[in-house]
Description:
The complex is a heterodimer of chains A (about 230) and B (about 350).
Chain A: E1 2-11, E2 14-24, E3 29-34, H1 40-47, E4 52-59, E5 62-63, H2 69-74, E6 77-80, H3 92-99, H4 108-118, H5 120-124, H6 135-147, E7 153-157, H7 165-182, E8 185-190, H8 193-199, E9 202-207, E10 210-216, H9 217-221, H10 224-231
Parallel strand pairs in A: 3-8, 3-9, 6-7, 7-8
Antiparallel strand pairs in A: 1-2, 1-4, 4-5, 9-10
Helix pairs in contact in A: 3-6
Chain B: H1 3-21, H2 25-47, H3 49-80, H4 87-104, H5 109-132, H6 140-162, E1 179-182, E2 185-188, H7 189-211, H8 213-223, H9 225-230, H10 235-261, H11 268-282, H12 287-307, H13 316-330
Amino acid sequence: xLHVDGLHASYGPIEVLHGVDFHVDVGEVVVILGANGAGKTxxxxxxxxxxxxxxxxxxxxxxxxxxxxxxxxRRGVAHVPQGRGTLTDLSVEDNLLxxxxxxxxxxVRADIDRWFTTFPRLQERRxxxxxxxxxxxxxxxxxxxxxxxxxxxLLLDEPSLGLAPLIVKSLFAQFAQMNQTDGLxxxxxxxxxxxxxxxxxxxxxxxxxxxxxxxTADELRHDDAVRKAYLGx
Amino acid sequence: xxxxxxxxxxxxxxxxxLGRLGQxxxxxxxxxxxxxxxxxxxxxxxxxxxxxLQRIFDGLSNGFIYAAMAMALVLIYKATTVVNFxxxxxxxxxxxxxxxxxxxxxxxTPLAIILAMLASxxxxxxxxxxxxxxxDPRNHLAVTIVTLGLFLILNSLAGVIWAYDxxxxxxxxxxxxRSFSVFGANLEWANLFTWLTVLAAVLLVSLxxxxxxxxxxxxxxxxxxxxxxxxxxxxxxxxxFGWALAAAVGTLAGTMIARTTLLxxxxxxxxxxxxxxxxxxxxxxxxxxxxxxxxxxxLVQTMSGGYIGFIGSDLAPTVAxxxxxxxxxxxxxxxxxxxxxxxx
Lengths: 233, 344
């Protein structure tokens, strides 16, 4: 579904990614691990063409370099950015409706009800401004809003950041379930390697803007370097 | 310590105190209401209630126009986070189009105004596409300068086409020059209809923004450009919608006031100053705030000009300036605006 080859990306004159290669197949959960500053967020931003890139990014066999962020979103890529990107002045429900902006079918209401069932806290706060939600609720809203577009590929940028361990756990359980029942393809970048490897099929390790290691989730879990650097034992 | 130093220090302290005063919205609004109420009671007692009511009516008539123009400014500000300095000239141009439709083509005035609003919306959509969209929406200075250029272009263009003669603009309302009496004060039917028209426009715009898909996109883009892109919202088209809507509202305001001021290429200048004051007072990103503040500014203008001798009608525009400076000093985000507003 997504093939990234020799990806270079820069913020102005400063190059941040110096050759990132990975791919995500349909129905997979792939995790990219990396420390602060390794280029995880930049990789996701590069996929959505929010920064200048070199190298090839192919989505469903088509090169998407140089397309607009809006168009890539319309091709079925839903990006939950770091900091969640909720529309703080809009109500919870309007956030979800905005998530379904590109859809033209009549099932938007049904989907809203579905995510309200999945995340009952959002239903309780449906008329509140999204800016008044707690961090965990905002993350739920960001995920639900991304899924409202019925994406082919879900990009998650450190969904565990700043959340209590229990909330992180239930959020990742949701991701795993969406992957299993809906066949949703997910690319997640995380520092929290433990929980991310639990739901992933395959993983990559990003260091200083380059992919340095790859394997199945199990292989990486038992890799000495990964264990020391990211799993903490 | 030198005198300059101590003077500087006390000025700084004074401004800091003003800033603290404006931190709580409820206090700011309360203070404003208290001042206006005290002023009203004093002048009503001193000069009689009938005159006071008459001035209220006059103030409201201006105030509703300012409210409509301020709403147009806020629409563009919410979309692009720039103040559209050409808003008044766009409204002036739209009013001339209504004049041409009505006067030269013989279309009935209300219909001519509606057609002119549509024409303005189309024109503004074109202006957005050609003059605004090439610039990065994050580059506020560039867009602001473009709106200043647009101001000059539209003003000169109108001068070339229609010359600088005063023209009478027909009232679109029935009951020309007829009025009725409320507690001894005269209220023209046309003024009452103006208020109702502006209120209807405010209601329509807020419904458009809260109930339609393009309205949702507009609110989303004005909240966060980046998130909207990630949701697949076409930024350019959405901003274009904002420009079109603002232009239509502006033209409506222009045609409402041209009835009383006469039409010529500079006639919106004064209106725009008061509308800027209203948009600033209400908070540049609050539609409701703009409407309320527009009415307040209309009242303040009429009352200060009418009751405070040395202000009269010549110094009245400076009242708008005082309001702008005062608001920016005491409460930069306006009465109803959100705090993150930082650019003007």
